Amino acid sequence: MSSGRKIYTFSCRHPNILRLYGYFHDATRVYLILEYAPRGEVYKELQKLTKFDEQRTATYMTELADALSYCHSKRVIHRDIKPENLLLGSNGELKIADFGWSVHAPSSRRTTLCGTLDYLPPEMIEGRTHDEKVDLWSLGVLCYEFLVGKPPFEAETYQETYRSISKVEFRFPPFVTEGAKDLIVKLLKHNPYHRLPLKDVLAHPWITTNSTKQPSSRKSEAATSNRTPS
Fold it and tell me: Which CATH fold topology does 3-211 show?
């Protein structure tokens, strides 16, 4: 395990990020001591239900956007947000896991092609440098997949998927509501600087109307404002 990896796995402490408590190794393996997430992968839950309703999706988006905002404040880019890398805690809360493709990037500019094909943003497949805004794209793809049951750029061949991503070509089924469409479209922008910032994702009307959770930052603010002055 590199020293760079240790910096951000131990420093990221957020209710929606799977905790790494420590690690040890022998001659052939590294063993991670991780927080237990008893409800398993979000991917398996999505397979079982085929898709999620708006309330569940908006709640997951709140938890994800809040956790990613925390990561980005620590200069950590995840770069591989997808259902397989999201776990569920004992109360059904979402936990970001598997930071295998993540990077602690103080310069905020990277060139490595990584992640999962259906979730790759245009700047990655086009060989351009990228920064934390790749996670905003992944958030849009994930929101679509939660609501529809499959990623927006899924195609029969890799070439078709690459082309669809590069041109940002996708369609919504008729059951997706206008509010959800608005959020997804604002995240799936070819130009990274045109993507909706995480703070605006958390304040988006579709999110605030449907989510059952508040961002942890707002809970802290509420707790502070409700304290009785001594």
Answer: Transferase(Phosphotransferase); domain 1 (1.10.510)
> What would the pLDDT profile of 109-136 be if each residue is shown by its tens digit?
333 333 468 888 998 888 887 788 999 9
Name the band, by pLDDT with cuts 50, 70 and 90, for residue 105.
very low
Q: Please check if 98 is assigned to a binding site.
A: yes
Residues designated catalytic: 80
Q: Is 85 annotated as a binding residue?
A: yes
Q: Is the pLDDT at 106 greater than 70, yes or no?
A: no
Look up residue 48 and give its two tokens: 């079982």
pLDDT tens digits, residue range 68-95? 999 888 888 867 888 988 999 999 999 9
Is residue 104 within 8 A of residue 76, CB to CB? The reply is: yes
Asked whether residue 16 is marked as a ligand-binding residue, the answer is: no
- What is the residue extent of each domain of the chain? 3-211
Tens digits of per-residue pLDDT, 128-168?
877 889 999 999 999 999 999 999 999 988 899 999 999 99
